[in-house]
Amino acid sequence: MSKGAFPGGYSEGHRLCVSASHGRGLKKTTLQGAFGDFGHILQIETPKSNLAFIAFAEKADAQDAMEAMDGKSLEGQTLTVSKAGPKPTYRPTTDPNENFKKVLMTTQTERENVRYRKDVEKAALTWR
């Protein structure tokens, strides 16, 4: 893998962001058919119905696809095609329960005790 390359063998500049004008959805097979003519596609991701990321093996192929397909219609949807930024990397946490530790858990009794303490403190201040 070359320096600066992402897993899958492509680097920044080889990846396109494709969005559609309607939320009807972009299908991977339709995108493969429309963009596959420009060069070898390594990966197509569809994180949302009207959003896709297409990674090409060659930067020139991605550039050609972006210039040719931006503003074109595909299955009744107008496409906006631009160069995608770097793909985010997943960083697993060392502690699988880390997210649970961030959640504050209280019981009804604990909340009542806090309320009681505040009332007592408030009453003590007014008696002074």
Provide a descriptive summary of the structure in words.
With 128 residues, the protein is an alpha+beta fold. It folds into 2 domains: 15-83, 2-Layer Sandwich (Alpha-Beta Plaits), CATH 3.30.70.330; 98-127. It has helices at residues 28-35, 59-69, 98-101, 108-127; strands at residues 15-20, 41-48, 51-56, 73-74, 77-83. Strands 2-3-1-5-4 form a 5-stranded antiparallel sheet, with helices on one face. The radius of gyration is 26 Å and the shape is elongated. The model is unreliable at 1-10 (pLDDT under 50). It comes from Symbiodinium natans. Keywords: RNA-binding. This is Rbmxl1 protein.
Question: What labels describe this entry?
Answer:
128 residues; alpha+beta; Alpha-Beta Plaits; 2 domains; five-stranded antiparallel sheet; elongated; disordered N terminus; Nucleotide-bd_a/b_plait_sf; RRM_dom; RNA binding
SSE blueprint and pairings:
Elements lengths: L14 E6 L7 H8 L5 E8 L2 E6 L2 H11 L3 E2 L2 E7 L14 H4 L6 H20 L1
Antiparallel strand pairs: 1-3, 1-5, 2-3, 4-5
Largest sheet: 5 strands, antiparallel
Number of domains: 2
Shape call: elongated
CATH topology of the largest domain: Alpha-Beta Plaits
The assigned CATH architecture of the largest domain is 2-Layer Sandwich
Number of strands: 5
Proportion in β-strands: 15-25%
Strand order of the largest sheet: 2-3-1-5-4
- What is the terminal-to-terminal distance? 74 Å
Mean pLDDT across every amino acid position: 79
Which structural class fits the helix and strand makeup? alpha+beta
Low-confidence stretches: 1-10
- Element order, helices and strands? EHEEHEEHH
By CATH's scheme, which homologous superfamily of the largest domain applies? RRM (RNA recognition motif) domain
Assign a percent range to the helix content: 25-40%
Q: What is the class of the largest domain in the CATH system?
A: Alpha Beta
Specify Rg, calculated over alpha carbons. Answer: 26 Å
